[in-house]
Task: inverse folding
């Protein structure tokens, strides 16, 4: 059978109607009380002729594509790469494939990606979003299941799953403050929920320790290594020494901060306490012992896909999940 042979031809070869052949191919034969003999005959013809249904035609016919759209800011970041793996594993087990868009933390790219995925008739969206609630209200089609992962969007009714960043950051900063009350926060400005929760955890730890918030200890900017290095270098040039302790909101800020410290001081200060959100196996080999926060990346992706399936089955029910993050001491 050629790839262009239609379902109609397949049905004729099996001696059944097109609707009967379609029901067998889509696993609905028993529900429609099609006889075992007919099912066997259709499947025999399918196997003999090597028939494969056209996904596009099936999508147009059923209104389903068995595909899920996933949008993340940076595929190259290990956190999001592992998160996507978690989505993929559950999606595959449920008969779905995923289409991935890298938004590069650009709202315009994310918006266009959403529109492109909707045009491809995806059955749901899983998004680590950078778009504002106002923009979301404009672009979101009401009928498509949606799950926010790592970042929730206030005011938008949708399920979400994220790490409990507040608790993890609070616990990490509390430990660092036991070694020095001069704890610098080096990180991204709180323009997403995940970064806002990390910063709020830092502030909560200060409050628990009976310390006032000091603006000169809060260094916030872009979310990359270069920004971390520049902010830490500016602090060093102003104070001419290392801070007592340092908490970074990401591994990029950690690397940038350490580069600035080593460049300015000639070596990393052995007495300084350091912690960071996220974890990397390479931290085991750093000269200084670094307290890190391990997120359950696979679990976040898997739970996001499970929530999306639940949204498809119960469109008006939304859930918000927080997964615990684990402190790793060295």
Result:
């Amino acid at each position: 059978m050629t790839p262009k042979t239609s379902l109609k031809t397949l049905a004729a070869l099996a001696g059944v109607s097109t609707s009967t052949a379609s029901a067998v191919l889509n696993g609905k034969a028993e529900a429609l009380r099609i006889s075992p003999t007919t099912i066997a005959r259709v499947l025999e013809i399918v196997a003999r002729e090597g028939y494969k249904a056209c996904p596009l035609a099936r999508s147009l016919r059923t209104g389903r594509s068995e595909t899920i759209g996933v949008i993340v800011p940076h595929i190259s970041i290990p956190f999001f790469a592992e998160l996507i793996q978690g989505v993929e594993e559950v999606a595959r087990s449920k008969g779905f494939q995923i289409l991935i868009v890298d938004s590069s933390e650009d709202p315009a790219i994310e918006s266009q990606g959403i529109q492109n995925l909707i045009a491809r008739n995806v059955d749901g969206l899983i998004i680590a979003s950078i778009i504002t609630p106002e923009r979301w209200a404009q672009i979101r089609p009401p009928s498509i299941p949606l799950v926010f992962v790592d970042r929730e969007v206030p005011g938008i009714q949708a399920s979400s799953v994220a790490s409990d960043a507040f608790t993890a950051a609070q616990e990490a900063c509390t430990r660092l403050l036991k070694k020095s009350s001069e704890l610098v926060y080096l990180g991204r400005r709180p323009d997403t929920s995940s970064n806002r929760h990390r910063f709020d955890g830092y502030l909560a730890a200060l409050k628990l320790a009976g310390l006032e918030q000091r603006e000169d200890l809060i260094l916030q900017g872009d979310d990359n290594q270069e920004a971390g290095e520049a902010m830490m270098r500016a602090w060093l040039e102003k104070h001419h020494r290392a801070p007592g302790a340092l908490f970074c909101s990401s591994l990029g800020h950690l690397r940038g901060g350490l580069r600035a410290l080593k460049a300015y001081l000639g070596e990393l200060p052995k007495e300084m306490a350091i912690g960071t959100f996220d974890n990397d196996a390479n931290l085991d080999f750093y000269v200084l012992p670094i307290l890190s926060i391990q997120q359950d990346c696979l679990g976040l992706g898997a739970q996001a896909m499970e929530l999306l399936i639940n949204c498809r089955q119960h469109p008006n029910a939304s859930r918000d999940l927080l997964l615990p993050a684990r402190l790793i001491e060295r």
